[in-house]
Amino acid sequence: MSLHDKTVAEARRNIEQREQGYREKSLRMYPHVCGRCSREFAYPNLHLLTVHHRDHNHDNNPEDGSNWELLCVYCHDEEHSKHLTQSSFAHEKPIAIATSKAFAGLGDLLKGKK
Questions:
Q1: How many domains in the chain?
Q2: What is residue 19's DSSP assignment?
Q3: Is the Cα torsion angle 70, 74, 78, 81 positive or negative in sign?
Q4: What confidence tens digit (pLDDT) does each residue in 7-25 have?
Q5: pTM (global) more than 0.90
Q6: Of 33, 75, 104, 107, which sees the most CB atoms within 10 A?
Q7: Residue 81 main-chain phi, psi, to 5 deg
Q8: Is 27 within the bounds of a domain?
Q9: Of 103, 101, 37, 97, which Cα lies nearest the Cα of 73?
């Protein structure tokens, strides 16, 4: 196993350990219902219920659970897609509004007028 593979494997283990801590706590704190679509979850499909960090900081895990909400995997993906879209547009310059008329005079040209 290369150094890169070992590093990636270790990082994944650390993430899984961290997630298990707050995931287990949040599942004990909150009803097993998606906070967005209100879908209910039981033991057989509980793996489809995820912990979403409201501030998108996975290291912010207060013991009272105030930064967590339970979301199904579909709503969780939607929330992160929305967040990525908003943050990517936040740093862009405003789009310039066209002031010229691209087809001005086209009608006259088509009629053979100059």
A1: 1
A2: H
A3: positive
A4: 989 888 877 776 668 888 8
A5: no
A6: 75
A7: -60, -45
A8: yes
A9: 37
8 A C-beta contact, residue 35 and residue 71: yes
How does 67-82 read in b/e, with b if 16+ C-beta sit within 10 Å?
Answer: bbbbbbeebbeebeee
**SS3 of 3, please?**
helix
- In this structure, the chain runs to a length of 114
The enclosing H or E element of 114 equals: none
* Segments forming the whole domain that contains residue 15: 3-93
**Contacts for 97-102 with beta carbons within 8 Å, 24 or more apart?**
none
Is the Cα dihedral 14, 18, 21, 24 positive or negative? negative
